[in-house]
Structure prediction request, 98 residues.
Amino acid sequence: MTESESASSHAVRTVKPHRSGTVLGMGILSIISLCLGLVFGLSAYLMGTSDLADMDEGRMVCSGRTPTKVGRTFGIIGIVLGLLWIVAIIVAIVRKLG
Prediction:
């Protein structure tokens, strides 16, 4: 086996760093900011889902799995609260007009 064959067979696999702090932060912001809850919640959910898939496939560091799951869950809660907020505003407008 030549030196170039040995080097190519032992290629170093690059693993991305986790973004759990970002996902968790967006999840928290989605809950406390009613106006932008949908935006932050959707971002937290999509990023969290993508990161968890990368962790499962070994492309991302797994040490941030728990905060990523929590951030994604907070994102879902933020989406629901944001939708409820929009429904409440629509109901209030309809009642005022009707």
Observations:
- The helical segments are 3-9, 20-32, 37-56, 65-97.
- Residues 9 and 40 are 43 Å apart (CA to CA).
